[in-house]
Amino acid sequence: MVAGAPARVVRRWTPGEGWQPPLRTPAPVPIPDGTTPDQLRALAELDESAVAALARLDAEH
Description:
Strand order of the largest sheet: 1-2
Strand content: 15-25%
Number of strands: 4
Number of helices: 2
Distance between the termini: 38 Å
Helix content: 25-40%
């Protein structure tokens, strides 16, 4: 990543090390292939308790 004027490298990414210096927040996770807009809408409508319940189910598998 380049920033400033004159430009300088402020962050780099390699497969072995990831982002250097590390990102302050986790990198975004891409949406899996095949996910439909309807599925995304349904996820957006879930409340915290539903998300927690889904996380518990996921942990069981």
